[in-house]
């Protein structure tokens, strides 16, 4: 990050891309183990796609999203809550926003999707976020299967919204995204994300912009500077900033995927602006 030509901050990014089980791009340490956080959401939405043949693509997209509480995003969450025969009070994520609201929490779509899955299978809704609940056990199974890792070998922690999160190497994360569409329900989730990238995060967000720019791509960011996704040719990728910075991800993924011939001009360089809206620096890979 340069301000007025002076280096003010440096972010180290680890990255890997995998195609047909083979590493095609790497930078830093591809074996770095970190938590999936919200990058797991497309896989946590798989049970929803399996449970309902008539689920709207917007419902699958918002279940895979880390939304910014925009009007269309909240409408999609409400669609899922209606399907689940549930209300905001049933969401087991915490309140978020300047007017504390569970609905406005960036993970409310995922939680609403889990409530809908519980209804479909006749499972109790209370405690769906807990490790002992079948909902979380199925999420672990889906992640382990996609990553081709034994369930017992995956470290488990609690995410910011209260559900479980899983630790994998960047290589395994890239591989699991490469496999996302191998099953029909995975393709339905991916198609929904591609059809509604604006629901996944929002304007200017790295994952949203990447899907809007590269036809057929899927991308999902996660907390603490994680970004995972796949390309139309089946290449899966994963990037992680060591300091958890989000602002480095755009230029980093543009550089990494640029090595594969994927052009992302909107992400290649991020402007640094002041409170007047004046451009005073840049964030770029060196």
Characterization of the model:
The termini are close together. The protein has eleven helices and twelve strands. The chain has helices at 41-44, 46-51, 57-63, 71-83, 108-121, 134-147, 170-178, 184-195, 197-200, 206-213, 249-258, and strands at 2-3, 6-7, 13-19, 22-27, 33-35, 156-158, 164-169, 218-222, 226-230, 236-241, 270-273, 279-283. The relative contact order is 0.18. With 286 residues, the chain is α+β, with helices and mostly antiparallel strands. It is 35% helix and 19% strand. The strands form three sheets. It has a five-stranded antiparallel β-sheet, with helices on both faces. A four-stranded antiparallel β-sheet has the order 2-1-12-11, with no helix packed on it. It has a three-stranded antiparallel β-sheet with strand order 5-7-6.
């Amino acid at each position: 990050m340069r301000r007025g030509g002076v280096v003010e901050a440096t972010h180290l990014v680890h990255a890997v891309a995998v195609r047909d089980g083979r590493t095609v791009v790497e930078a830093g340490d591809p074996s770095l183990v970190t938590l999936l956080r919200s990058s797991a959401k497309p896989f946590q939405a798989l049970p929803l796609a399996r449970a309902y043949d008539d689920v709207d693509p917007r419902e699958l997209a918002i279940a895979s999203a880390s939304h910014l509480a925009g009007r269309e995003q909240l409408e999609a969450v409400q669609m899922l809550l209606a399907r689940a025969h549930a209300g905001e009070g049933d969401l087991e994520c915490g309140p978020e926003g300047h007017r504390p609201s569970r609905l406005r929490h960036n993970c409310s779509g995922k939680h609403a999707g889990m409530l809908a899955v519980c209804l479909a299978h006749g499972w109790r809704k209370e405690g769906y976020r807990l490790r002992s609940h079948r909902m979380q056990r199925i999420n672990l199974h889906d992640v382990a299967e996609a990553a081709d890792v034994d369930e017992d070998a995956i470290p488990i922690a609690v995410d910011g919204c209260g559900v479980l999160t899983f630790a994998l190497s960047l290589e395994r994360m890239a591989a699991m995204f490469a496999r996302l569409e191998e099953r029909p329900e995975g393709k339905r989730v991916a198609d929904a994300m591609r059809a509604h990238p604006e629901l996944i995060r929002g304007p200017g967000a790295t994952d949203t912009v990447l899907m809007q720019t590269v036809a057929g791509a899927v991308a999902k960011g996660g907390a603490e500077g994680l970004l995972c996704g796949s390309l139309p040719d089946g290449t899966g990728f994963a990037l992680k900033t060591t300091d958890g910075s989000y602002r480095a991800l755009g230029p980093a993924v543009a550089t990494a995927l640029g090595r594969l011939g994927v052009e992302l001009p909107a992400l290649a360089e991020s402007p640094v602006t002041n409170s007047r809206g004046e451009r005073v620096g840049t964030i770029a890979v060196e």
